[in-house]
Design goal:
heterodimer; A: 489 residues; alpha+beta; five-stranded antiparallel sheet; disordered N terminus; B: 623 residues; mainly alpha; 31 helices; elongated
């Protein structure tokens, strides 16, 4: 018998492999069907009619694929998913599925899952029932799965375990360090610019890669860190927040790696022009005078010009200049600075505009009485979709952040308070993220566990906790960022 | 990526013999890899040596990966390791492959089954490209990350990046005499410190409003169990959430619609297809537009000039044209409102045809590289007549006849507008161009013809002959007048051609002068071809004085005639033949009775031809 992962010795002809696009399409279709069945297996009995139909659809898809390829082997390798050795690339619509399947594999320590020819629908049904049991990430998850599959006589679906040693180091700690390294590097860059010294653009480029890698592995946590708001070093902290959010959004939009590096660098330096803005204007409480506003509104132009005049200009992405110049220009082309002949705004500028606005709205500033919660900020921004912001990019950002964005302080129907720490990858559970409990039912502060609001009580079948409303963390003196930083020590 | 190896990594299946075989196999592969990279640095990729190395490497790697599934190589400063033990070392920093990876923080390299020849070639090309960059620009980790190989992965821990950032900062601080943290404490700058005791201390009391909301409970729609799985192909990922009009939840109603996805794809596509140069120029113009500080303004213009030079050097005339258009547009816009900003733009436009630009174009033309000729035409056309000297030099330097032809339209227009200007650009230093100018001036009809006189005094014979030929074809007194000028040329061929091309002159003074010159001793020393040409011209004039002169020359007797004198008599016979009148024939008949045999024969032949000829006198000297 061939080993899982082996290419079969005989194939029925060139088939799908002859056309990489067709192969990708077929692979993604299979992935989607697998995902549907896997998540529905947790909710429905195997005898449920619609569920049986879904399993049947998966079986049909697999049968067709197996006829062409001889086997179907899903493999996870360093946050990438492969099918029969070909890497699957997610698009805008398939990202949640991709992420969900990866998590399914990781939580069970599965390195690969191979479907062999001869797999019947009944056997597949047994497999998905076993697989669908929601096992938490704990020692023995894989062995338990194997045992259950053996007990159910499932032989034509073969999982392989992640190799010993290939574990994930403390992601949170590393992500935290990268976040603060970014602030330090940006501080260094600003100081170099003040002294008219060359910037270390290659280091910046390398930093963007690292941030991206951490977003891939640990998106929720990094987004959580953007709740950090340093009042003294506002521009620095803000620029790093904007960079992280821009990269997460750009990734979600399907930008390539080189585009993402450019986007990251552009976001990183988008407020470089503020170096020329007097601090007493930047930090002035209350409204700015006409003259002060004019000075303030020069920072995009100054930022772009600084970047243009840098000796490293040829190493800087051109779009960094665009973003510096355009990040305060609205979708309807109003805004500032005035233009000579602009008829559109660069895509990267649209992206950075959204995340910049969001981070600014959710940061306490001396000149603004109110700090918006993340949910309020998103609502406010949606009202300006089409005029202030590009509607499609904004919608994607809202989808990224979630109904209850990561870092939101929420009141639960149990009386407990919690901080949102991760979104549920399934859209149907948008209102049921993962939360860290920070008070008990009486309001006493606790360093509580992380609860998945989508999990039902197995006895009653009901949800133990549901979010009632989002709260103003600032008003309650809750430093949300601390809960993320604590995980990064 | 954040994979971390722990000491409990599994050894390859099998006993010591198998392990040794595996190690040997890996050693072999790594040697082949290093040799292939070295070969690629010396030879082009299509060289037989390189191809041989690549094929060998690909075969060994394929065999290994088919057997083992993956190859995991540790990277130390000067060694590659397998299971922690070195299997390949090279301590020569300049060429060491391990060092090449190590210096950029790469610590483990993974090659997986599925790695095919195409991906391997891509990887090798990447190594070659990065190794050829200057040290400061090269980063193999960045390059690999951007290339995003499917079956080649790596581990480059963030410690490297952390150390790099901290060291750069320390360096910078030290350079400016600022306090520098000792290295052992530097990393503490980014240590995360949070007082978690606060998490379990105290109480949070809700406001009355929030407490009431909690008592009321969540909206019912949130509490209910999710509906049946939707029948959409994505299994309910669309439209399952409960929209609450205007709130983020509404936007969360599934993924983007098809229309929205298409709109986004169009945005991304547009972003990818816009030319970087066009984008840059748009930006630069916006920045210029906004800048009020004239020093900064000048600085930005200088940058644009550098950009222009660089694009010209690359043969990217399209960008150069675009730059000119945009600057002109800006200048026109600023002319009234901001003349102090418009002025420098005029100077800038003039500098676009500077000697530096010319040098770059010359070098480009000399390199033999192909470039967009249409764009080049646009570029020179934009400059108007100010660029004619540059265009002339460009024309001169181009080896490709097609490329030269493409420039002719520019000169043709110039010839029509201002032929004198065009003629003024012709010179001995621009022979190719000068030849083209001759044609263009001749083609410009009466307007251009007079300016062919510019070529009198040229040293280049080919150009002068072309001018003479063009004048000869044109005919007319203006052409004649210029041709007379060429009679005094230093080059005999030119003088002869000019004489042959001359038509009868109307101006008698000039003719008499010519006769006097032909009567001089110096004329006798000229070559027979030249004498023939001049005397034939005199004959063609059918002038009485010319007849008298020619007859006298033919019938002149010398006691001891020299060869030169005889030549002159023979040439006079040719002149009389050209004349062809009755008087001329009479002179020839007399000559045919001369005691000088050569004269006798020549005259006889001339008479014979005359009697055969139907047009008779007035025909030009045959070549």
């Amino acid at each position: 018998m061939s080993r899982p992962g082996d290419r079969p010795e005989t194939q029925t002809g060139p088939g799908l492999r002859a056309d990489p696009k067709a192969f990708q399409k077929a692979a993604l279709d299979l992935l989607i069907r697998f995902h549907i069945v896997a998540k529905n297996a947790r909710l429905y009995e195997p005898t449920n009619a619609l569920f049986r139909e879904q399993v049947g659809a998966l079986h049909d898809g697999l049968a067709e694929f197996l006829r062409d390829e001889g086997q179907a082997c899903f493999k996870v390798r360093q946050s990438a998913l492969f099918l029969n050795g070909a890497r699957l690339r997610f698009g805008l619509g398939t990202y949640p599925i991709y992420k969900s399947v990866l998590e399914e594999f990781r939580s069970r320590d599965i390195a690969s899952l191979t479907f062999l020819p001869g797999l019947e629908a009944a056997e597949l049904s047994k497999f998905v029932s076993v697989f669908g049991k929601r096992d938490k990430t704990e020692a023995g998850a894989f062995e338990k799965l194997l045992a259950d599959l053996h007990a159910s006589e499932v032989d034509d679906v073969v999982p392989e375990k992640t190799e010993a040693g290939e574990t994930y180091a403390s992601l949170h700690k590393n992500s935290g360090r990268i976040f603060f390294l970014s602030i330090l590097h940006l501080k260094e860059s600003f100081e170099r610019d003040r002294r008219n010294e060359s910037l270390k653009v290659n280091t910046t480029r390398r930093l963007m890669q690292s941030i991206f890698n951490h977003i891939v592995d640990n998106e929720a946590f990094l987004i959580g860190l953007t709740n950090l708001k340093n009042f003294d070093e506002y521009t620095l902290n803000h620029s790093v927040n904007v960079c992280v959010l821009a990269l997460a959004l750009g990734r979600r939009l399907g930008l390539s790696r080189s585009e993402l590096v450019e986007l990251g660098i552009a976001a990183f330096f988008h407020d470089l022009g503020k170096l020329d803005t007097p601090l007493d204007i930047l930090n002035k409480p209350g409204q700015l005078s006409e003259e002060e506003r004019e000075v303030m509104e020069r920072h995009p132009h100054h930022g772009a010009e600084k970047l243009l005049h840098l000796r490293e200009f040829n190493r800087l992405p051109l779009r960094a200049l665009h973003v510096a110049l355009e990040h305060h220009i609205r979708e309807d082309l109003s805004g500032y600075p005035r233009s000579f002949k602009r008829d559109d705004v660069n895509l990267f500028s649209k992206i950075v505009k959204i995340v910049d606005y969001f981070d600014a709205l959710t940061t306490k500033r001396v000149y603004r009485a109110k700090v918006f919660t993340r949910a309020e900020a998103l609502s406010l921004m949606l009202e300006q979709s089409g005029t202030e912001f590009n509607p499609v990019v904004l919608k994607t950002f809202v989808s990224l952040m979630g109904v209850f964005p990561i870092g939101t302080l929420a009141a639960l129907d149990t009386g407990e308070l919690a901080v949102i720490v991760d979104l549920n990858p399934e859209a149907r559970f948008a209102m049921r993220p993962r939360v860290k409990l920070i008070t008990d039912r009486e309001g006493n502060r606790v360093d509580g566990a992380v609860a998945d609001l989508a999990e039902r009580d197995p006895e009653t079948g009901t949800y133990p906790r549901t979010i009632v409303k989002a709260l103003d963390a600032d008003a309650y003196g809750v430093r949300v960022a601390d809960y993320f930083l604590a995980r990064a020590r | 990526m954040a994979l971390k190896r722990t000491p409990e990594s599994p050894s390859p299946a099998g006993g010591p013999a198998s392990e040794a075989k595996t190690r040997d196999g890996v050693k072999d592969i790594l040697h082949h890899l290093a040799n292939t990279v070295s070969a690629l640095k010396i030879f082009p990729p299509e060289h037989a040596t390189v191809i041989g190395f690549i094929e060998s490497l690909a075969a060994k790697l394929q065999a290994f990966l088919d057997e083992h599934g993956k190859l995991e190589i540790g990277v130390e400063e000067y060694a590659f390791t397998l299971e922690g033990s070195p299997v390949y070392t090279d301590e020569m920093t300049i060429k060491s492959l391990p060092f090449f990876f190590f210096k950029d923080g790469l610590r483990i390299l993974y090659l997986y089954q599925g790695l095919d020849r195409a991906e391997l070639l891509n990887f090798l090309d990447l190594i070659r490209t990065e190794s050829q960059k200057p040290a400061g620009d090269s980063d193999i980790v960045t390059a690999m990350w951007e290339r995003d190989f499917a079956n080649i992965q790596y581990f480059a821990p963030d410690d490297y990046l952390e150390t790099r950032i901290l060291e750069e900062r320390s360096e910078s601080q030290a350079r400016h005499g600022l306090p520098v943290l000792p290295a052992e404490f530097a990393h503490e700058v980014i240590e995360i410190k949070v007082d978690t005791s606060r998490f379990s201390t105290g109480k949070i009391a809700l406001t009355d409003e929030d407490r009431a909301a909690v008592r009321k409970g969540p909206p019912a729609e949130t509490v209910e169990a999710p509906r049946e799985p939707a029948e959409a192909p994505d299994g309910g990922l669309r439209g399952d959430s409960e929209p609450t009009g205007g709130s983020p939840a509404a936007a969360m109603d599934g993924a983007l619609t098809e229309t929205e996805v298409r709109s986004l794809e169009a945005l991304i596509r547009a972003s990818r297809t816009t030319s970087a140069e066009a984008e840059f120029l748009d930006l630069a113009v916006e920045i210029l537009f906004l800048e009020d500080d004239l020093d900064q303004y000048s600085g930005s213009l200088r940058l644009l000039e550098d950009f222009h030079q660089e694009r010209i050097a690359r043969g990217d005339f399209a960008s150069a044209v675009l730059l000119v258009h945009k600057i002109k547009e800006l200048r026109d816009h600023l002319a009234e409102s901001r003349p102090e900003k418009a002025g420098p733009l005029d100077g800038f436009l003039k500098r676009l045809v500077s000697p530096g630009v010319l040098k770059a174009v010359r070098e480009l033309a000399a390199s033999g590289r192909r470039f967009d000729q249409a764009a080049l035409l646009d570029f020179v056309g934009l400059q108007g007549d100010d660029s004619l000297p540059l265009t002339a030099d460009i024309y001169e330097s181009l080896e490709d006849p097609e490329a030269r032809d493409a420039l002719l339209d520019v000169f043709r227009s110039a010839a029509a507008r201002d032929p004198g200007r065009l003629a003024g650009l012709a010179s001995d230093e621009r022979p190719r161009f000068s030849l083209a100018v001759v044609d263009l001036l001749a083609g410009a009809g009466g307007k251009g013809l007079p300016f062919l006189s510019a070529f009198i005094g040229f040293k280049n014979s080919e150009v002068k002959l072309a001018a003479v030929a063009a004048l000869g074809r044109s005919g007319g007194q203006t052409a004649n007048h210029i041709l007379l000028g060429f009679l005094k040329d230093a080059d005999e061929d030119v003088r002869i051609r000019a004489a042959m091309a001359l038509n009868p002159v109307e101006e008698k003074t000039r003719l008499l002068q010519l006769i006097r010159e032909a009567d001089s001793k110096a004329f006798g020393d000229k070559s027979v071809r030249e004498k023939r040409a001049v005397l034939s011209f005199l004959g063609r004039t059918r002038n009485a004085e010319a007849l008298v002169f020619l007859r006298s020359r033919l019938l002149k007797r010398n006691l001891r005639p020299s060869a030169a004198a005889t030549e002159t008599r023979l040439c006079a016979a040719a002149g009389l033949e050209s004349m062809g009148t009755a008087e001329a024939r009479a002179a020839l008949e007399k000559g045919a009775r001369s005691w000088n045999r050569a004269v006798r024969e020549t005259c006889g032949q001339a008479l014979a031809r005359l009697s055969r000829s139907t047009t008779g006198a007035g025909g030009r000297e045959r070549a």
